[in-house]
Amino acid sequence: MKSEEKIYGLHSVIEAIKSGTTIDKLYIQKGLRGDTFLELQRLISESHLNVSYVPIEKLNRLTRKNHQGVVAQISPIDFMPLEELVIQAMESGNPPLFLLLDQLSDVRNFGAIIRTAECAGVSGIIIQKKGGAPVTADTVKTSAGAIFKVPICKVDHIKDAVYYLQASGIQVVAATEKSDEMLYDVDFKLSTGIIMGSEGKGINPSVLKAVDKAVKLPMLGTISSLNVSVACGMFLYETMRQRLLP
Q1: In this structure, are residues 149 and 118 in contact, taking their beta carbons and an 8 Å threshold?
Q2: Worst-scoring range by mean pLDDT, 136-145, 165-174, 229-238?
Q3: Band (91; pLDDT cuts 50, 70, 90)
Q4: pLDDT, tens digit, for every residue of 128-162?
Q5: 162 in helix, strand or coil?
Q6: Where are the domains of the chain?
Q7: What is the CATH number of domain 82-244?
Q8: How far does Cα 122 stand from its chain's mean position?
Q9: Whole-number Å distance between alpha carbons of 214 and 195
Q10: Which of 11, 69, 165, 215 meets the CB 3.0–4.6 Å disulfide criterion with 29?
Q11: Are 155 and 130 in contact (CB under 8 A)?
Q12: What's residue 175's pLDDT?
């Protein structure tokens, strides 16, 4: 277990990237210029890092040190490559169950989902490098330590992961209210990847087009959707229910 920490300063962050340090998110001051900044931009592009360009006030809240317009948040966990994650899950002897989070943005929802995933026997969680919630102390706390027990993988694009899982013989199911089919119509005893969308936008339309099935939860009230961590729990426990049946 690694403690959450931050690296600040242009040269320090550049060296951290070059050394292969697991950087979960970069915060860069808007309008930053100069040759050293251009080198940092090149490394960011090559490494596909998750970056937010923010006002200097945000950086000053992150650290009181001389940050030079750059603060990097170091992940408390290491991420597993997708290929390794899939091979490990398929060699376990049980049908793999993956959870794909399409740019989920709230760190507490992320932590709650990880906690439920661990309880439901999820083989691994797949997230996108850019646009999603970072792994912070709040994520760790909300997960109740489950984040150190469930393998997590970062990919450039969720759609790439969908195609890779399908090529590996794993059905991919999207959770979306934009479907006429119900959750209970899916055979979750098969090797499965379940996609949950972001809090505000749901699943990206291009990702929806790539999945094998798109299904929804039945809703009897007037509110059209559930909190994503609650909906995710219902999908995972329906999967568990089916797999525990004789």
Answers
A1: yes
A2: 136-145
A3: very high
A4: 988 788 887 788 889 998 999 999 999 999 999 99
A5: helix
A6: 5-74, 82-244
A7: 3.40.1280.10
A8: 14
A9: 9
A10: 69
A11: no
A12: 95
Which listed CATH number (3.30.1330.30, 3.30.70.3270, 3.40.640.10, 3.40.30.10) goes with 5-74?
Answer: 3.30.1330.30
Angle at CA of residue 33, ends 30 and 38, nearest 5°: 110
The mean pLDDT value for 1-17 works out to: 78
Report the candidate in 9, 17, 7, 12 with the shortest Cα–Cα distance to residue 72: 7
Closest Cα to residue 188, out of 112, 120, 91, 115?
A: 120
Helix 35-47 and helix 10-18, axial crossing angle in degrees, nearest 10: 30
> pTM for the whole thing?
0.82
User: Residue 245 half-sphere exposure, CB side, CA atoms within 13 Å?
Assistant: 8
As to burial, measured by CB atoms within 10 angstroms (0-12 exposed, 13-18 middle, 19+ buried), residue 210 is middle
User: How large is the average pLDDT for residues 80-108?
Assistant: 94
User: Position of tokens 């740019």?
Assistant: 103
